[in-house]
């Protein structure tokens, strides 16, 4: 597949009128009773969630840790292919991995070759040299570098002010996006929707072509309207995980997930319409 990741994502968003990313993070304590915490149980649960929510999504995000914790890595491989082959959608591998030199090369190979993710979340705090093995996979892939995460404790490290006057997360954003060329993987950023004002701090610092992955809407109570307003012209996806896949533990879980995904998609579109009308 030779189309640039961001071009493909934008086309899917326009075709499906959706900017929703459904996060597949199966929690052992929230699974329906007939779905055991086993590779087979996770596969069945996740596949049914995917089938129920795909029409409302533009991309899926799989948190690798939830699958690896019960030895379901092979199931994860199958699910990524299933999303692509049946529903025509790309997937983000959420591992937040990175390392130096050959170790980073192996992390990239795991995410892009073994699992065949089209994008991956990457820890850029090791420095820009650690991004090179990921970038080498080319423009049909993408990395979303951790920039300002959605957890409350993010402030303690990521908002420290440097001697230059910039905050740490702003410098990380500038340096990470500066590694991208037309030949490399696309470089995006993870920006928590629980900190919408910090997204605005990136204006004029990163290219307007930088895609944004926005976790924190739903259970973490991120501010949707302010988040989207501050994204400006950036290509973005709003991730919702628990607020979609775990709204029910009964046998209606898939139907309830579909209804939650539809609602999230519509709320995002209503926010976009509201901002367009006010412009």
Explain what this protein looks like in three dimensions.
This protein is an alpha/beta fold. The protein has 12 helices and 8 strands. Helix 6 links the parallel strand 4 and strand 5. Helix 2 packs parallel to helix 4, helix 2 crosses helix 12 and helix 10 crosses helix 12. The chain is globular, with a radius of gyration of 18 Å. The mean pLDDT is 95.
Reconstruct the topology from this structure:
Elements: H1 5-16, E1 20-24, H2 39-53, E2 59-63, H3 64-68, H4 73-87, E3 91-97, H5 101-114, E4 119-122, H6 132-135, E5 142-148, H7 154-158, H8 168-177, E6 186-191, H9 196-200, E7 212-214, H10 224-231, E8 236-240, H11 242-245, H12 253-278
Parallel strand pairs: 1-2, 1-8, 2-3, 3-4, 4-5, 5-6, 6-7, 7-8
Helix pairs in contact: 2-4, 2-12, 10-12
Largest sheet: 8 strands, parallel, barrel
Spatial ordering of strands, largest sheet = 1-2-3-4-5-6-7-8
* Count of individual beta strands: 8
Quote the distance from N terminus to C terminus: 37 Å
For the record, what CATH class applies?
Answer: Alpha Beta
Order of helices and strands: HEHEHHEHEHEHHEHEHEHH
Number of domains: 1
Task: State the fourth-level CATH superfamily.
Answer: Aldolase class I
Q: In DSSP terms, counting alpha (H) and pi (I) runs of 4 or more, how many helices?
A: 12
Using the coordinates shown, work out and report the CATH topology: TIM Barrel
The parts where pLDDT drops under 50 for at least 5 residues are none
Into which percentage range does the β-strand content fall?
A: 15-25%
In CATH, the architecture is Alpha-Beta Barrel
Residue share in helix = 40-55%
Alpha carbon gyration radius: 18 Å
Average pLDDT, rounded to a whole number, is 95
Derived structural class: alpha/beta
């Amino acid at each position: 597949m030779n189309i640039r990741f961001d071009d493909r994502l934008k086309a899917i968003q326009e075709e499906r009128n959706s900017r929703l990313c459904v996060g597949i993070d199966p929690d052992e304590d929230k699974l329906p009773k007939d779905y055991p915490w086993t590779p087979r149980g996770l596969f069945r649960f996740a596949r049914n969630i995917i089938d129920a929510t795909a029409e409302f999504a533009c991309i899926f995000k799989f948190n690798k840790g939830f699958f690896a914790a019960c030895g379901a890595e092979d199931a994860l491989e199958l699910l990524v292919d299933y999303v692509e082959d049946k529903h025509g959608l790309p997937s983000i591998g959420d591992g937040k991995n990175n390392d130096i030199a050959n170790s980073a090369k192996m992390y990239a190979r795991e995410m892009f070759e073994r699992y065949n993710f089209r994008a991956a979340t990457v820890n850029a705090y090791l420095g820009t040299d650690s991004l090179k093995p990921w970038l080498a996979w080319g423009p049909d892939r993408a990395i979303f570098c951790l920039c300002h995460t959605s957890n409350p404790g993010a402030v303690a490290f990521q908002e420290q002010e440097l001697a230059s006057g910039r905050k740490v997360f702003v410098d990380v954003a500038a340096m990470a996006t500066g590694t991208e060329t037309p030949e490399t993987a696309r470089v995006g950023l993870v920006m928590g929707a629980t900190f919408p004002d910090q997204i605005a701090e990136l204006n004029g610092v990163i290219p307007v072509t930088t895609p944004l992955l926005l976790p924190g809407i739903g259970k973490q109570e991120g501010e949707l309207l302010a988040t989207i307003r501050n994204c400006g012209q950036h290509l973005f996806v709003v991730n919702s995980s628990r607020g979609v896949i775990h709204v029910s533990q009964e046998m209606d879980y898939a139907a309830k997930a579909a209804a939650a995904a539809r609602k999230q998609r519509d709320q995002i579109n209503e926010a976009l319409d509201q901002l367009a009308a006010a412009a």
